[in-house]
Specification:
Blueprint (H helix, E strand, L loop, with lengths): L1 E5 L26 E7 L16 E2 L2 E5 L17 E9 L7 E7 L18 E11 L2 E2 L3 E7 L4 E5 L2 E5 L1 E5 L2 E3 L3 E3 L8 E3 L6 E9 L3 E2 L2 E2 L4 H12 L5 E4 L5 E20 L2 E16 L4 H6 L10
Parallel strand pairs: 3-9
Antiparallel strand pairs: 1-2, 2-4, 5-6, 5-7, 7-8, 7-9, 10-11, 10-19, 12-16, 13-16, 14-15, 16-21, 17-18, 19-20, 20-21
Length: 303
Amino acid sequence: MFCGCFAASGATLISHAASDVTISKMVIKNAVFDEVYATAAVIKKENFDGSTPDEWTFDTRIHALFRGDLYGGNVSFTESIVELVRIKKRTAKDTKFQTIYEKPIHVNDDFAIEFIDYLEPAGTVEYAYVPVISGGENDYIITTAESQFDNCFLVEKGKSYPIDLDESYTETINYETGQVKPLGSKYPVIVVNGNTGYKSGEMGGTFIELKNNQVDAIGAFDYRHLVYDFLTNARPKIFKDVDGNLLMINISGAITESNRAYCYHNSDGIYYVTSKFNYVECGDPYDTGDLYDNDFIDTFVDR
């Protein structure tokens, strides 16, 4: 649908049914045009008050203001002037958008970005596509995603493993203090060195791969030890639960197995094993500096 603030009657604002024909050209003539706005979203004629949105969304196609040029995009998207594109994220716990990915622009095809955010928590998450010109950020193109999942996950950059069954974890808030007993005083003086309050505890679950909603009994042993290799590679992890909580952790100590029992499944057998391990909190999963330092993202521009 095209809506413009121009010299014409209200009857010219007509909403047509969607077409599968790609529109590659638009011609406007025989009028004085102040503004042209095109969107893939449906705008009902009775709800149109003559104004156009200032913010760009992924439905916006053209917004030309005719300020001495014929630009109709939120920026002049050419590889000659756009240095790079930033992908920014804002969760319910963030006060502002933070950069999680950057892509240099060399050719026009570089503007197309496919990016999987393994660090996305459950809940509402906003993403912004931001072109950078001459070192400055241009208009944000914002979209919103609703993230939902049924399992807890352990995540690295580009890698994620679910805890499918029997997931559990304990949590201890570590507040470490010391005591100084002054001479002649009845009561000790409590000394706190540093901003303590980090978390630690034990996590556990059954690591079984599901294929087409069926337990892979044949590959259960190999899959479980693939997860063990992941847990013991000395790299920090982010733990995600179904309530939207994130925890950046290091695995500490040994992995133990319990409830080891042989179960029959679809005329085959599988060892039902519960694995447990200890963890220690090592950073803030919402801080881009900590994410960069622990190799979850490759940019620290918003540190």
